[in-house]
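Let's practice the habit of predicting before peeking. Look at the sequence and jot down your guess about where helices and strands might fall. Then scroll down.
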Amino acid sequence: QWGNLSCCLKIMFLLSMMLELSAAHLFYWRGSVCFGAFEVTDNIDNLKATGEGGFLQPLALIGFSLAGAGCFVYLFVSKCIDRLRSGPRQQRSAELDALEATWKAFRVRLAKEAETVWPLDPPRRPGERIHIERE
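Done guessing? Here is the structure:
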């Protein structure tokens, strides 16, 4: 939860989100400055990626750098959070492994009891078998 994170991780998480949002707003509000014009009918051989008259202007490269940095920071924070969670997760897994034999035995017992009970039969004592007469 957010309240359990350290101040440093919170700041890094917010930084990653701000970088992503900055790149998104840059591309949305200033897309015409970031990207050059290329018509669908233009010759593909004349397409330049960067530089004068290129499809990607310097501002677009800055936007992609912001987005990449935001992703990198987010991945780092995510790995840190995973490391913090691993201890309690392993402890809970060990507790559940210890209980596995108990609940499996309980379910086997319930299944065996259910084999002897018909849905509309009157209630019987556990383990009591019914006798079916054949004609």
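How did you do? The CA atoms of residues 34 and 57 lie 5 Å apart.
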